């Protein structure tokens, strides 16, 4: 690590695509709904769901299929999708942590950096427990605590408050364009996890946390 990352007091991590890959389980659960409605929901379509709330994700799936349902049906289908997703993540264990994730979290803890999760997922705390890293987090801000989805900065600003730090004292680690935009709007240094082609607005882009943990 070099530069500003050496001096941060707080680190806020997105969950899916940064620490673990649960996107594949979200995709399978949404695809099952699309199959029931009789249209194809591709992995390319699924890219639009990264970093957004469950209800907004459902609306995008419906848009892809040209489907219109009532608000009551939306709530029922979102719950059905979540139950299917939960069936997948209940089987998760530490082997599903992405390369370098645990090592980098430990490195930050050793430096006295405070760590928070900033995720749209309402299952974030459960997943952290399943993969064995919950005790490394000083705060968990997830879909149960925020009203506005990324790219609104609410999740990261609340994470800063829970860590007792200012935005300019923190770095955000994100794999989605909406998350990078949220971090920038919050006034934080942002590390994109993934491809520079998608995350060029970030201050720095790496392929994974293993590049920082080494």
From TrEMBL:
Substrate binds at residues 14-16, 30, 49-54, 57, 81, 119-123, 150. The record marks 119, 150 as: Important for catalytic activity and assists the phosphoryl transfer reaction to Asp8 by balancing charge and orienting the reacting groups. It comes from the Bacteria. Mg(2+) binds at residues 14, 16, 174-175. Belongs to the HAD-like hydrolase superfamily. CbbY/CbbZ/Gph/YieH family. The keyword Nucleotide-binding does not apply. The active site is at residues 14, 16. Its cofactor is Mg(2+). This is Beta-phosphoglucomutase. InterPro entries: B-phosphoglucomutase_hydrolase, Beta-PGM, HAD-like_sf, HAD-SF_hydro_IA, HAD_sf, PGP-like_dom2. GO terms for biological process: carbohydrate metabolic process. Pfam families: Hydrolase. GO terms for molecular function: beta-phosphoglucomutase activity; magnesium ion binding. NCBIfam families: bPGM, HAD-SF-IA-v3, PGMB-YQAB-SF. It is an enzyme of class 5 (isomerase). Binds 2 magnesium ions per subunit. Keywords: Isomerase, Magnesium, Metal-binding. PANTHER family: 2-DEOXYGLUCOSE-6-PHOSPHATE PHOSPHATASE 2 (PTHR18901), PSEUDOURIDINE-5'-PHOSPHATASE (PTHR18901:SF38).
